[in-house]
C-alpha cells in the first residue's frame, strides 16, 4: 500500500482515461449473443447455457419443488438474519415513495405529475463462485415497494443445473415472481427483448461481469438499466481521532471483493498513514481471501496524504467514491462539504459491511466516480412520471397570444394553427 | 392517413424491430470524432466546426457583445412571451424540488438521504434550419432550480458564425453561464471529457440529430445523459364528443416537426375516423410546412379503430406515446387507466403546443415508446442522492450477528472481520 500526496493523486487522476473504446472484443461477442437471442429466443438461451455454463437444462424457470428444496438447505440463523435485513431495507426505502400531485394553478388550469410503477422489471444476480442473497433483497425490495407488477430474476445455474439455495430463499422472501436459470449477455438480451419463456421487461437492474455490463450498455435505450457498474471502491477520510485498526479492516473488506477493487484512505496525518499500513499488513495476513486482497491492495490501494482538511475533502469529491467513511471527530459536521459519494458512513461504528447487508440503504451504488451524477438504487428507479395538463377554453384563450408568438418564432406554424383552430371555433364560444 | 384495426396495429407493433444494430456507419464517424476531441481538445472543435458547419471561428464562446447584439434583434412580444413561459415553467418545476431527509430509526441509529445538485451540466441546443428558444428554457430552468452551479449550452453556429438571437436571449433570460458555438458529436464529446475552453460536465441534456444521439449513447456511463431521443409522436384518444377539427390540428402540429414524426389517433368511432381524415386533408393544404407534413402523415400517420374503450386504452399503453391527448367526455376519469405516456393533455383545450411552449411541464419527454420506463425531464434529473448511515457502538454490537451471518454466507470473511475488529476492541467497550 503506497502513500501519495494530493498532487500526485490529482495528476494521476487527470490522466486516467475512461475505458470507453477498449471493449471492442467483448462487444463483438455480446452483440452476436443479443442478435441470436432476439432471433431464436429460448433456443438460444438453452444453447448459450450449455456453452458457457456447461449445463443442459430441461427448463429455464426454477420450479416450486426447487424452491422447497432450497428452503430445507439454509440455516435458521441465515433465515433470521435475512428477515431482519429485509425489514430494515423495506423500512428505509419506504421513505422514498413518491406520490402523484396536482395543482390548480389558476382558474381553469390544472397541472400535475402522475407517478406510475414500471410494469415488469428484470433483476440480474451473478452466479459462479459466489452467491449474493443480499443483492436479491437490495434489488427486489425497492421494485416491490414501487408497485412493479412483475419482478423476475435471471441468474446463471451451477454446474449441476441448480441455483444457490440462499439466493432462492432470498428471492422467495422478497416476493420475486420467477427465477430463470440463465446468465451472461444472453440473460440481458432475454430481459430486454423477451423470449417464449422470459418476459420483455421495462428495466434491467443488478450487478454482473463485463459481458453483462456491456450487454446492458447495448440494450440501453430499448429498455432502461440501473447503471453500468465498474470496479467497487471505498474511500475513508480519517482524522487523528480515527482507529487505524478499524480503517484497515474496512479497507480490507472492500479489497476482498476482487482484484480490481479500490481501497483508499485520505488523511492529513502522516502517523495515521503509517499506522494504517501496518494494520493492513497484520490483518490481511489472517484473512481467508488473502490472495485477492493482496493483489487489490498492491495495485489499487493507496493512502493519500493531504496538507489540510480542505484539500482532503477536495480529493474525496474528485474521487466521488461509491462508499465513503468519515472517520472523524464530528462526521455530521463534515457532511455539508461532501458533494459526491454513493453512501456516506459516519463515525467509527458504521463500517461498510453494515451498509452492504443490514442497515437499510441500498448497496447498489454508483461506482468508479459516477457518484458525481448518479444515485443509489431506490424506489425512484422503478417508477416513472407523466406530466398532466388541463386548461379550460377561457384559460387557453388567455394564453393563445404568447403560445402563437413562440411557435411562430420557431417557424412551427402548424403549432400555431392548433391554437388558431380553437380561437376560430365560434360554436365553442358560448 | 390510413385506418387500421387494433389487431393490425398490434401485429405491426410486435414485428417492429428496434434500431439497435443499424447505426454502425454513424457510430464509426461518431467514435472517431469523440477520440479526436479527447485527444486534441479545442483544436478538434475548430476543425470539425469548419468541416461540418463551414465556419471558421475565432473563439468558441459567445461574447457579451454578441448577447447585447442579439437582445436588440428580438421583438418585445417575443421577450414578453418568453418571460411568461419562463415563469410557468419555473413554477411547475418548483413542485419537483427534493429535500434531504434523516430518520432516527432506533437509539443510536441515524439513516438518511442527502440530495446534492450536479455540479456542471451541458445543454445541447440544435441549430441549423430552426432555432429553439423553448428548448433552452425547458432544459436550463430545471437545472437552475436544482442548484446546478454551472450550466453551459453548446449549439452549432450559423453560416456567418453567429447564433440565433432568440436562442441567445432565452439563454440569457434563463441564466446560462456560457454558450459555445459548437454542435454535433464534437459538442457532446467536449461536454463529456472537457477541452481547454469547454468544461467537462456531469450530465448532457437536450435534443439533437442522429450524430448527437449516438454520441450521447457512447459517452453514457462516463457522464450522465437525459435520454436518447427518437422520433417525436402524438397519440390522441378520442371518443364521440371530440372535435375532429381539433384532433386534426393537433395531429398536424406533431407532423410538421419532421418526416419521421408519428401522428396517431385512437378511437372506437368509425365516423370520427372519417371526419378526422377529411379535416387533416383540408387543414394540411393550408399549412406552410405542408411538404414535411404530407410525408409524415403518409408514412407514419394512422387512425386505429378499436372495438371498445378498453382495447383503445390497451393500444395507448402499448404505444407509450410521448404526447397523449385525451379528447374524451371525462378525461380526468380515464387518467387512472393510462400507464405509459410522457405528457397527458386532458380535454379539448389542452392542445400539444400549450405544453410545448407555455403551460409549465417540460417538453423534453420520453419518445418512441420509452415512456414505458422514462419520465419527462425534471429537477430530479439534475440532482443525485447519497445514503447516510450512522450507528453507535451499542447499535452496531446488536446488529453484529446478522451482519456476520450474511457476510459469511456470501463467503466475504473480511466483511465479517470489519465487525469482529470492533467487537474485539476492549478499549472501546468502556
Q: What would a concise description of this structure say?
A:
The structure is a homodimer of 430-residue chains. Chain A is built from 17 helices and 14 strands.
Q: What is the fold's blueprint, element by element?
A:
Two copies of one chain form a homodimer.
Chain A: E1 2-5, H1 6-15, H2 24-40, H3 42-53, H4 64-73, H5 76-94, E2 101-106, E3 109-117, E4 120-124, H6 133-146, E5 150-154, H7 165-174, E6 178-180, H8 184-193, E7 203-205, H9 210-219, E8 224-225, E9 233-238, H10 244-255, E10 262-267, H11 270-285, H12 290-300, E11 302-305, H13 309-319, E12 323-327, H14 331-334, E13 343-346, H15 352-357, E14 383-391, H16 393-409, H17 413-423
Helix content of chain A: 40-55%
Major sheet of chain A, described briefly?
6 strands, parallel
In CATH, the architecture of the largest domain in chain A is 3-Layer(aba) Sandwich
Radius of gyration of chain A: 26 Å
Under CATH, the homologous superfamily of the largest domain in chain A reads Nitrogenase molybdenum iron protein domain
Descriptive notes:
Two copies of one chain form a homodimer. The first copy, chain A, is α/β, with parallel strands linked by helices. Chain A folds into three domains: 24-225, 3-Layer(aba) Sandwich (Rossmann fold); 231-373, Rossmann fold, CATH 3.40.50; 393-429, no CATH class. Chain A is 47% helix and 17% strand. Chain A has 17 helices and 14 strands. Chain A has helices at 6-15, 24-40, 42-53, 64-73, 76-94, 133-146, 165-174, 184-193, 210-219, 244-255, 270-285, 290-300, 309-319, 331-334, 352-357, 393-409, 413-423, and strands spanning 2-5, 101-106, 109-117, 120-124, 150-154, 178-180, 203-205, 224-225, 233-238, 262-267, 302-305, 323-327, 343-346, 383-391. In chain A, the strands form three sheets. Chain A has a six-stranded parallel β-sheet, with helices on both faces. The first copy, chain A, has a five-stranded parallel β-sheet with strand order 6-5-4-7-8, sandwiched between helices. A three-stranded antiparallel β-sheet of chain A has the order 2-3-14. Chain A is globular and about 85 Å long. Chain A starts with a strand and ends in a 7-residue tail after the last helix. The relative contact order of chain A is 0.13. The mean pLDDT of chain A is 94. Strand 14 (383-391) of chain A pairs parallel with strand 13 of chain B, so a sheet runs across the interface.
